[in-house]
């Protein structure tokens, strides 16, 4: 059986989804500028982001008990706790268009900077590091961390970038 749950009305633009530390499903609402939560009973809670038009896309459960997300339109990385407290961290390059995000087992998160041709890292307190990709205009999208800590990002140019931190 497959069912659907309405999350925030037509045009909300649900995008990324992950399981949170509380066992609920957490998701981004790109067009609504919000982060949503669905508990195991199907109840939906929506948390509006402080930045209007932020355009959240990727979301990941962090190792710090919170969820991390990227705001493609605002050029920010955000963090939300299970109780709904939100903190946003503006990227040094607000036009970088962060797209995907994954938890770093050592703390913080790795994310792609689609328009800036980089992979970025944000620590738990909002300190950024950035790594330029060797191929111009490779447009990194999805990102993962391998068991050995290697960061891999898939590129629209047809390759995979590997970063050994």
TrEMBL record:
Keywords: Lyase
Record carries keyword Transferase: no
Any one GO CC term of the record: outer membrane-bounded periplasmic space
GO-annotated molecular function: lyase activity
Lyase found in the keyword field: yes
Any one Pfam family match given in the protein's UniProt record, by short name: Vgb_lyase
SUPFAM superfamilies xrefs: NHL repeat
Name by which UniProt lists this protein: Streptogramin lyase
């Amino acid at each position: 059986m497959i069912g659907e749950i309405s999350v925030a009305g037509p045009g909300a633009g649900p995008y990324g989804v992950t399981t949170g530390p509380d066992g609920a499903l957490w998701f981004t609402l790109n067009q609504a500028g919000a982060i949503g939560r669905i508990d195991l009973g199907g109840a939906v809670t929506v948390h509006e982001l402080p930045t209007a038009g932020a355009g959240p896309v990727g979301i990941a459960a962090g190792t710090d008990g919170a969820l991390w997300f990227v705001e493609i339109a605002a050029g920010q990385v955000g963090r939300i706790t299970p109780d709904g407290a939100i903190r946003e961290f503006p990227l040094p390059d607000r036009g970088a268009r962060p797209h995907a995000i994954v938890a770093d087992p050592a703390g913080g998160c790795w994310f792609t900077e689609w328009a800036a041709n980089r992979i970025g890292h944000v620590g738990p307190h909002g300190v950024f590091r950035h790594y330029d990709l060797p191929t111009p205009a490779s447009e990194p999208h999805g990102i993962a961390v391998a068991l050995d800590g290697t960061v891999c990002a898939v590129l629209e140019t047809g390759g995979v970038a590997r970063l050994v931190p």
